[in-house]
Specification:
This protein has about 110 residues and is mainly beta. The chain is about 0% helix and about 50% strand. It contains no helices and eleven strands. The protein has strands at about 5, 10, 20-25, 35-40, 45-50, 60, 70-75, 80-85, 90-100, 105, 110. Strands 2, 4, 5, 6, 9, 10 and 11 form a seven-stranded mixed sheet that branches. A four-stranded antiparallel sheet has the order 1-3-8-7, with no helix packed on it.
Length: about 110
Amino acid sequence: QGHLVEPGGGLVQPGWSLTLSCVAAGFTFSGAAFQWFRQAPGKEREHVATIYSTHTLTDYSASAKGRFTISRENRKETVYLQMTKLKPEDKAVYYCNRMNYKTWGQGTQVTVTS
């Protein structure tokens, strides 16, 4: 199954940018698809973005489209989520997932507040 680790996260002000990382190990990274999810307090976990093994094929939730960019660097076995124009409602714990597997990162907190 392998595992995923998400360093990063943090506290930023509205309008700022932040990039999350997801470092993978224990499986063939290049052939895998990955997703970012998030879970805000009192809410269900929701999908944010997906990137398939072909780097150019991506998918975004409505709230992420136009502000967030998912990317991958196979050489470093890392998936990124670049977030721009952050809003207070983006505050959540963000999780990385290997698509179609029960392989999740531990989650990283993103707080957007002035």
